[in-house]
Amino acid sequence: MAELYVKPGNKERGWNDPPQFSYGLQTQAGGPRRSLLTKRVAAPQDGSPRETSPGPPPMGPPPPSSKAPRSPPVGSGPASGVEPTSFPVESEAVMEDVLRPLEQALEDCRGHTRKQVCDDISRRLALLQEQWAGGKLSIPVKKRMALLVQELSSHRWDAADDIHRSLMVDHVTEVSQWMVGVKRLIAEKRSLFSEEAANEEKSAATAEKNHTIPGFQQAS
Amino acid sequence: MATYLEFIQQNEERDGVRFSWNVWPSSRLEATRMVVPLACLLTPLKERPDLPPVQYEPVLCSRPTCKAVLNPLCQVDYRAKLWACNFCFQRNQFPPAYGGISEVNQPAELMPQFSTIEYVIQEDDLQALKESLQMSLSLLPPDALVGLITFGRMVQVHELSCEGISKSYVFRGTKDLTAKQIQDMLGLTKPAMPMQQARPAQPQEHPFASSRFLQPVHKIDMNLTDLLGELQRDPWPVTQGKRPLRSTGVALSIAVGLLEGTFPNTGARIMLFTGGPPTQGPGMVVGDELKIPIRSWHDIEKDNARFMKKATKHYEMLANRTAANGHCIDIYACALDQTGLLEMKCCANLTGGYMVMGDSFNTSLFKQTFQRIFTKDFNGDFRMAFGATLDVKTSRELKIAGAIGPCVSLNVKGPCVSENELGVGGTSQWKICGLDPTSTLGIYFEVVNQHNTPIPQGGRGAIQFVTHYQHSSTQRRIRVTTIARNWADVQSQLRHIEAAFDQEAAAVLMARLGVFRAESEEGPDVLRWLDRQLIRLCQKFGQYNKEDPTSFRLSDSFSLYPQFMFHLRRSPFLQVFNNSPDESSYYRHHFARQDLTQSLIMIQPILYSYSFHGPPEPVLLDSSSILADRILLMDTFFQIVIYLGETIAQWRKAGYQDMPEYENFKHLLQAPLDDAQEILQARFPMPRYINTEHGGSQARFLLSKVNPSQTHNNLYAWGQETGAPILTDDVSLQVFMDHLKKLAVSSAC
């Protein structure tokens, strides 16, 4: 879900700037690792003269691969690269599909959340719309926003939160102005949902206590 | 140009200027007789879509009454790097950045077609920092409390309200204040409610004024994001030849005082982000005149660093107060020149805070290092922990001599405490206000058993380490480790003791002692001490015939130790003159807290060789390992260097890696890149990354590690005057070893 990529560092500001890893790669780093490079070689004890290489080797080609040169690689054609870019080609995310659920979520929260906060979120959603419509957002950002909205609609709050974080880390310049509104929206929707769930449980419990048929007591 | 009409039009298009007269009457009298005055229409911001702004600041004439900007009408002497102002005829020196200009390599502002040119004052560094801070709000837990202080000539403490109007309290950057004064001025002196240790302070439980300055992330994130977005460079203008005024000392003092008055003894970090040295007020490290450079090691040696002692004292006081309050201070310093890490280092070192040093906030080195502070472990908890106290107990045959690491003493005396101090001694308890799973202390012991007191058969000594700390989930935890080791009589069981020697741990522990000494002793004295210890160790544990160096042997458990010492002597921790004082402080900061594996990498960098002859293998850190048909990967902890041997580089240039029948060459090229990536992905702080080849200018990073540098020979030409046995500060590991053996087997020592 999260993108895994490495891009070069900022060569203008530092010629030895290390490469930049995407959020997905960085959070994955805690996984099992190959054996680290930590071994050393002791210096020869008897002081024997070091072997010097016998002069530069003749500049022939490198030793060829042991594979038969003509055998086609196993599997499908050109995509033998290492990068995981072999996703099926998707149609670009549609703005309405992202903004409508966000605005709906905001509406849902209006009763539960302070007016000022709602206004703040609304302002930022408007900014998001403006930037999207103005072509200022890159494709990965749009794609991940579509995924975020899906997770939000399916009530998978942690997943949505993680996507927001990955966008803040990988694309902060594009998203910083409005993303904090989306982040707050996820938090408000989550707390609203758990409140509603708690209320439903309470009313179900009272219904049982009163020995009425549960179905009739459900608030719509 | 055929007619003046063309000339006029071209000039208007380029310069946005139209003159009434395009040839000027040469005397005053004649000009008045022209009726129409000599005048022009100027459109200063005329649109020039073909004129991108240049990303540097204009060069000005140095005459204070002139200050004209370098332009195509100026006479230039490219050899002497001088230019003559065409307005006042002053001869001016070009700034150092123009060192490379020539007739064929002119800066834009000298070319005639750039009679109009636009300069941009660099802001992208501040923008990058702002974005990193906004991003960090997404990485912090929602109930963490955050506050913001900004500083330049003045210091501003921002009030974080949710009401939409941002307010701040402004302090002068020149005057230091006591904690009480700060708390009074910020209105924090209502009676404090007793703190509950078990839970983080919820703002609603503490309804006093601190909540104006410290608010939970989940409430304040939108406002703070906007506030950060609006931050600008200090509006006070900086004249040419001056540094910006930076009141770091007062800003830090206010931050410490604010937290002291509001949340003592709760886990907290003060994060200091700075783009240059403190130039004003207490804690200033250099004045604001650019022509007076910031102190170098030479200046310090010659006692020519006028602000150093006072500034260091200021930050030491702050660091001690902060540690006493249980808080830690991080320093993130990004600038091309030094920022005063030498004076401020105690803030990070005594409190367990981090020190990050970079060239610019707009680099991946800073951005990713900063992100990694918020890394979570496999349980989804932050790796950082707070407020630790370490209590060490020993069985009666042992005493505690001291500890070296990111800690302060708690001054707890007792029967376990030795009179002889090594490191931070005189105590059996230390405080580590900020720590993470790699934080490592060196703890030194003294054996106090009398020489002829018999040890019971099978007797063991024991040590217990008790660490109380606050986990990032705010839970308080106690980790207890109890260890025991056998006693042995040295006379009869030397081989036993030898076999149980951990040369890696020993090297790091001795190195920490050496670097600790280097903070207060002269460099040559430290090297002499280190050499003396090495010779004595070899005399004790080597196998040899007296006066016969060729017979000298060390058992396997000691075989790497002399090499470690050889490289330690040449390391940036003990050889300071190749680095700035800030760089030395930065390297020493990381050395004093890393675990064994990382510390060893810093002492003796890892070198692996990749070739067609077999799997990647470790090789000697020596010039003999540089071969034409090998790729080398060197890890110094602070840098990862990939170096292609001459033949490999030629094959790459010829493009063999793109040919399917040479796919193994492609794999060979990729293998060190993959291994480097593994290291880069996890290390804190992020190392620099150098990918070079035989003959490349950056190959010097590898060459300087495998071959001794020239400079340290001259500067440390301490000689035989003292008569003490001294190892030669000589060219190679081989010669070093030969000399060591000679001294070890000699009966004169």
Automatic annotation (TrEMBL), chain B:
Its main location: membrane. One of its GO terms (biological process) is COPII-coated vesicle budding. Residues 385-488 form the Sec23/Sec24 beta-sandwich domain. Residues 616-702 form the Gelsolin-like domain. It is a peripheral membrane protein. Residues 502-600 form the Sec23/Sec24 helical domain. Keywords: Cytoplasm, Cytoplasmic vesicle, Endoplasmic reticulum, ER-Golgi transport, Membrane, Metal-binding, Protein transport, Transport, Zinc. Residues 58-98 form the Zinc finger Sec23/Sec24-type domain. Residues 121-374 form the Sec23/Sec24 trunk domain. Pfam families: Gelsolin, Sec23_BS, Sec23_helical, Sec23_trunk, zf-Sec23_Sec24. One of its GO terms (molecular function) is zinc ion binding. The keyword Hydrolase does not apply. It is found in: Cytoplasmic vesicle, COPII-coated vesicle membrane; Endoplasmic reticulum membrane; Cytoplasm, Cytosol. One of its GO terms (cellular component) is COPII vesicle coat. It comes from the Eukaryota. Belongs to the SEC23/SEC24 family. SEC23 subfamily. Component of the coat protein complex II (COPII) which promotes the formation of transport vesicles from the endoplasmic reticulum (ER). The coat has two main functions, the physical deformation of the endoplasmic reticulum membrane into vesicles and the selection of cargo molecules for their transport to the Golgi complex. This is Protein transport protein SEC23. It comes from Homo sapiens (Human).
